Amino acid sequence: MTSPMSLPEAKLDAALAEADLRVLLMVVYHLTGDDHWLSEPFLPQRDVNLIADEDAGLSPEAQAELRATAKALLSAGTTHPAINDPAERMPDLMQTCLGERVPAEYATMMREEMGFADRRIKWSGPSMADRAKHPVIIIGAGASGLTVGYNLRELGIPFVILEKNDEVGGTWLENRYPGCAVDTPNHAYSFSFGSREPWERYFSKRDALLRYMISRSQEFGLREFIRFGTAVTRCDWDEGSACWRVQCTGPDGAQTLTGMALISAIGPLSLPSKAPIPGADNFNGPLFHSAEWPEDLDVTGKRVAVIGTGASSMQIVPTIVDRVASLTVYQRTPQWVRHIPRFQDQMTEGQCWLLENVPFYAEWFRFTMLWRYGDGLLRTLKRDPDWPHPERAMNRMNDRHREQMAAHIEQELDGRPDLLAKCMPIYPPYAKRILLDNGWYQALCKPNCELVTDHIERITAGGVQTKDGTDRSADIIVLATGFKVFQNAARLNVTGRNERRLEQDWADDDPKAHLGITAPGFPNMFFMQGPNTVLAHGGSAIFTSECQARYAVGAIVRMLEDGIAALDVRQDVHDDYMARVDAEHRELVWNHPGMKPWYRNAKGRVAAAIPWRLVDYWTMTREPDLDEYHLTRETGT
Ligand code: NAP
């Protein structure tokens, strides 16, 4: 948290000129502990932009004084800040930093996210790790699997990670389509633990994300615990030994491993959904799903068809449009797309330097991103029973967002009434997954691009035929048609207590789990990114993984400490939780009948998205309540 050396003056001057002053104010407060910085004229103004203006609305005089003070403090060395962890001052600091109300209930969660408070699970007495008769088996070495592995390693609990690929990274390894990038701000979309990554963009590209995952797997010492190239074929609960038997095939052939607990960390968006369009087998050229983009494919000068207009398509289309001969985009449902000023910007050299070198800067910058891309939107997505236009918006604020997004689309498609008619949605904004404007509309306006809204009839040898009988030629077809999200861990071929099959319990695309983490009849099994835990209103998926890892590993620690052989969530607890999830969702936008988001299954239940605020989920998952579980004690304890 502290830097032992003073910082070079020339670098400091240049960097301070580019500093986000609301963040710099917090740095100065940490270094001095002087309350006068938390009053006028240094109070930052609220800024609703995700990437806020760096001057924070301060007067030129206040800016100059703040920078000069920061320079003096940092030049003098920062070995002894007045405040390391703001603890009880956190509520004040959060509000001052952002110039808006931030409820005090966020204070501890944010301190953990910023690394001021330790989130790691601890033994309540001496380590009981050697009581583990078998390792914990984790399936998947993406961000979730690495998070669980990190926590278990810190505690000394034996574990093994089975990974079907030859490298870590999960979604960031598999998706390599042109333009692939994160659309959660990166300074929030990163682990709360380990060294801070000097992200060069607000929203990083896939290669940077994959490098991050690989380097953290090294930093956390996890690689020796990972069996690469190893695919799980079935998982069976063995009641006699209270263990999981996990069958897998890998470089050494087929094997059965025994685990004291089983953690599915296979990712919610890892199974491509290839639209069942007739004729796909007859196509003469490359035809593939967006997540299976061929490594050596060159689209230059080719006629490319992209089916689908979700997040993947929105990144592919603007990236390749200038390279291809023609681009035909097949749209089934128009999308609301949010304009984020400076979305594509690189961080400046000065900002990167501040993030890497100035104590407390990275922590508070992360806080601003966590908050702005956090819970704020959720309350605007709730149905107002008195709102007179429920077909177009959930409430007045949601309608205001609709107007802003509609104005953006009109501006982008000025002079193209044909495209405007095709692109303007009629359902409420945010009802489908939030999308950010990557240059989408500008790409659609290019002379070599066509947006087709007639439904697809079939794929032919030479292209795509729509229902109106039109044939459009293509050399390459990309299925940007999304993922099978509802199978989740059920596709691991899991049999629990009394021959209970997860596949059956979750049949008809209807997975359910207590807190999204445990299901009755499947003792000692935990789901990462399980049912109803996908963040749909904002926030970072790494945050939810950390919540789930704390809960799961917390339960494993209790098992070892208390001599518990098996821990199986009570059916009534599970059902009550699911009833609360469903009741909450009935009032939220993803249930709106005007469209079909991928969060909702065919029978109309929102089974993927979380209905809670981040702070609610963080509170619910802080520690497992063992009264909610049937416990089987170790014999002799
Ligand atoms: P998606 O959002 O599910 O979009 C699939 C698209 O394909 C939709 O436009 C859908 O139309 C269309 N489609 C599906 N079946 C079709 C069919 N039979 N015929 C014609 N069109 C069909 O999938 P995605 O774009 O791969 O994104 C999935 C999720 O992955 C995202 O929502 C996001 O959570 C994640 N993701 C994240 C990033 C990122 O962070 N940057 C990037 C990519 C993906 P309808 O709209 O009518 O259903």
Q: Your description of this structure?
A:
- The chain folds into three domains: 4-115 and 351-375, no CATH class; 131-271 and 485-633, 3-Layer(bba) Sandwich (FAD/NAD(P)-binding domain), CATH 3.50.50; 280-342 and 387-479, FAD/NAD(P)-binding domain, CATH 3.50.50.
- It is globular.
- It has helices spanning 9-16, 21-32, 60-75, 90-98, 107-113, 143-155, 171-174, 206-219, 311-320, 349-357, 361-372, 396-412, 417-423, 440-444, 502-505, 541-562, 571-586, 614-620, and strands at 136-139, 159-162, 226-227, 231-238, 243-250, 253-259, 261-264, 287-289, 303-307, 326-330, 449-452, 456-459, 463-466, 471-473, 476-479, 494-495, 525-527, 564-569, 629-633.
- Strand 4 and strand 5 form a beta hairpin.
- The two termini are 43 Å apart.
- The strands form five sheets. It has a five-stranded parallel sheet, with helices on one face.
- It is built from 18 helices and 19 strands.
- 48% of the residues are buried.
- With 637 residues, the protein is an alpha/beta fold.
- Bound molecules: NADP nicotinamide-adenine-dinucleotide phosphate (NAP).
- Residues 181-183, 269, 275, 277, 290, 307-313, 315, 330, 332-333, 433, 456, 480-483, 596, 598 line the site of NADP nicotinamide-adenine-dinucleotide phosphate.
